[in-house]
Design brief:
The longest helix is centred in the middle third of the chain and has 18 residues, at 131-148. The protein is built from 14 helices and ten strands. By secondary structure, it is α/β, with parallel strands linked by helices. It folds into two domains: 3-281, Alpha-Beta Barrel (TIM Barrel), CATH 3.20.20; 329-388, DNA polymerase, domain 1.
Length: 401
């Protein structure tokens, strides 16, 4: 079978049916492209590139400094023995069953890379003959790319359930990022989603190994002379889990295992799977989880501060920071000229950069007008209802966004 056709058939994503070949990307520089240029080339959502009339999946990767780069998101095989109830690659679906060798995958990726279609590779796989076997093919592909083709670009390798610690170390030596999909916040919830997977032994333990290896091994043995970042993903809405459960797990992963990113995937029923008749999860829930995740990782919030309802879920119609401010700051506003960093960060419209700008600016004089905050990069109209400026509420209140 033609390699491009095989690659196209490794994804069930519906956007492949709507691809506009005129939006195929130009070559991305090594350090990515700006967000505005990325939107111009790709639009806001995951798009596709077209090669020889084949639509191929592209994943939008965020790079340091706000730049972005297109990654090919590929699988070694679409055959999987784990039979996860929500997954489009469950054996009962009609997705084509495709198998690549390491040589095939490396070769087709390099063709796309050298033609300027993609900047990097996100490589995963279904599981046949055990997770260690699947991991070996992923590692062989990465080794070919790094050493035969001298590819120095971005490489994200999935750690498969059942991988061994030596394989995890080898992946870390080759990749810019490694990831293990926990899928659920606990063993109880995982049993509902994926009864053939073991939460602690197969999923959580490899994430623990990654952090242990970063602390105990010399990073100079890795391809870029530094250890890769790590991430995970939760499936949201298919196992009855609450936002509180997900975010408690997220805080533990950020704090103790130093994950760089956690992804939240709103459940969408796939035809032919055991979960095909479950209702889809609202995209807004996924969005609010991302907002809360940022508060935990970048703003130093504690999960117990977040505004959960009696069921352990975040508000449906408001971002978590704004909801918390309405509950706690509307009647007890924060004095901009005296508040410590952690209090400034709890004000809507003020992020870490804005908070540091306030600390620096008030060394030269009091801040007493919303226009001063605007010049510092603060979203003053969001902050206004929750602050004092030199002991006074702002002279006018602007509508909350």
């Amino acid at each position: 079978m033609d390699a491009l056709l095989k690659l196209q058939q490794t994804t069930p994503f519906s956007f492949l049916e709507k691809v506009d070949s005129a939006r195929s990307p130009l070559k991305a520089p090594p350090d990515g492209i700006t967000r505005s240029e990325y939107r111009r080339r790709f639009g806001e959502k995951n798009a596709a590139v077209t090669t020889d009339c084949r639509a191929l999946p592209i994943y939008h990767s965020a790079l340091p400094g706000g730049r972005r780069a297109p990654l090919l998101k590929a699988m070694i095989t679409t055959t999987c023995e784990r039979r996860c109830h929500y997954c489009a690659f469950h054996p009962s679906t009609n997705i084509p069953r495709i198998q690549f060798t390491a040589d095939e995958m490396a070769s087709i990726f390099m063709q796309l890379f050298e033609s300027g279609r993609v900047h990097g590779l996100f490589l995963s796989s279904g599981i046949t003959n055990g997770g260690a076997n699947a991991q070996n093919i992923i590692l062989d592909t990465a080794h070919i790319l790094r050493h035969r083709y001298a590819f120095r670009g971005y490489l994200h390798l999935k750690i498969m359930p059942g991988a061994e610690i030596g394989q995890v170390l080898q992946a870390m030596r080759l990749a810019d990022r490694v990831s293990v999909n926990l899928e659920a916040p606990s063993a109880h919830r995982l049993k509902i989603l994926a009864p053939k997977k073991q939460f602690g032994e197969e999923l959580l333990q490899p994430l623990q190994w990654i952090e242990q290896l970063r602390l105990s091994q010399i990073p100079e043995t890795s391809f870029h002379n530094r250890w890769p970042s790590s991430s995970t993903q939760f499936v949201v809405g298919a196992s009855g889990e609450s936002d509180l459960e997900i975010l408690q797990a997220s805080q533990h992963l950020f704090t103790h295992l130093k994950l760089a990113r956690i992804y939240y995937q709103a459940f969408s029923p796939q035809p032919g799977t055991p979960f095909e008749n479950l209702p889809p999860e609202q995209p807004s829930r996924e969005h609010h989880l991302y907002q809360a995740s940022i508060l935990l990782k970048q703003y130093n919030f504690d999960v117990e501060e977040l505004p959960f309802d009696a069921s352990g879920n975040l508000p449906e119609t408001s971002d978590p920071k704004l909801a918390l401010a309405r509950n706690t700051l509307a009647e007890d506003p924060v004095e901009i000229n005296h508040a410590p960093l952690e209090h400034l960060l709890r004000i809507p419209g003020i992020g870490p950069t804005g908070a540091m700008s306030i600390l620096k600016a008030r060394k030269t004089g009091a801040l007493n007008d919303l226009s001063q905050l605007t010049r510092l990069g603060i979203f003053a109209e969001r902050a206004a209802p929750f602050i004092l400026l030199d002991g006074q509420r702002p002279s006018y209140q602007m509508k909350l966004l």
